[in-house]
MFS transporter (Candidatus Allofournierella pullistercoris), 388 residues
Amino acid sequence: MVHLLLVAIYLAYISLGLPDSLLGAAWPAMYPQLVVPISYAGILSVIISCSTVLSSLLSGRIIARLGTGRVTAFSVLLTAGALLAFSVGNSFWVLCFLAIPYGLGAGCVDTALNNYVAIHYESRHMSWLHCMWGLGASAGPYIMGQMLAASKGWPSGYRAIGFIQLALAFVVFISLPLWDKKEPTTVEHHDASKLSFLACLRLPGAVQMILCFFFYCALEQTMGLWAGSYLTLSKGMTQDAAARFTALFFAGITVGRALSGFATLRIKEKHLISGGFGIIALGVAVLLLPLPPVLTLAGLLIVGFGCAPIYPCLIHLTPHYFSPQASATLMGLQIASAYLGSFSMPSLFGFFANQWGTQLFPVFLFAMLVLVGWMYAWLLKLVSAKPQ
């Protein structure tokens, strides 16, 4: 039963990843049809992320009332409905409205599953959980690219992902008896509000940990949202090719997380995080240099591979650096911060791209890498006396 529940959790995380990369892959084809500037991708990203932040902050109370299984099932279903509605949206402002349920579906399930796995499972399961996210995030732009290459248009891409999401929602719904049997021992049935937001922020290293999530997710989301536009506008690739090759970044994350799950058996998580920073720096350098297109594509893969261990290892370290009692509240703050970084900084880059062009893409990524590395080094200094 435990293994069947893990399968359901993994499938739920695939569903979380599927919509995350679609906007960046589809946007080069979307904005000319919607007759809006290229920077308007940032507006949609802001609305999606704000909705996700809201649901993340409310997640403790919602999960305590409904349970992880039901929250997960209804969240996946809500996202499926939003994706299908996106496929028939006929204007930018209609899509802005639909972006609200698009984002609301992600926050609660993200917090619940991360906190549950961080407390109840070994580090390798956290890496493999996020590998499932990468699998979904890799499949999204690939499917969108196939639809664009077949001249079926970006709405067909959203429609295809929406139906896949519906199928995953069905699987989670029929798995609810497994969640119900496990629910009494899950963390959300402890008092999730035992520590207030303010009390968590006062813990040594908590602010630095939260900012790690902000800047890391700023880097990751900027890659996902703007890599396609960078390949199209700065490297001269066609729209359908750029959409497909954006999947290389997410493929790097997926493969890297599968391998880092095994690596955690021998290598400390803090070393995996530091190594990830170094690999990202190499990938950004490849993107920055005037190299042939095939090497630029290798840069996307390298950056994804470097990103692989950072988020799951940081999540898994949360109850170890702080405490299981603080982790539920702190996890909500971390994921909210992650989504704040995900919409604010890519939107800032959208402004830069509109003013000075997408060639600033690698420079912006490097700035985010420096900031997350600084926050992580500060965090380690503050929590160095605590068990890892």
Observations:
- The CA atoms of residues 130 and 312 lie 6 Å apart.
- The chain is about 80% helix and 0% strand.
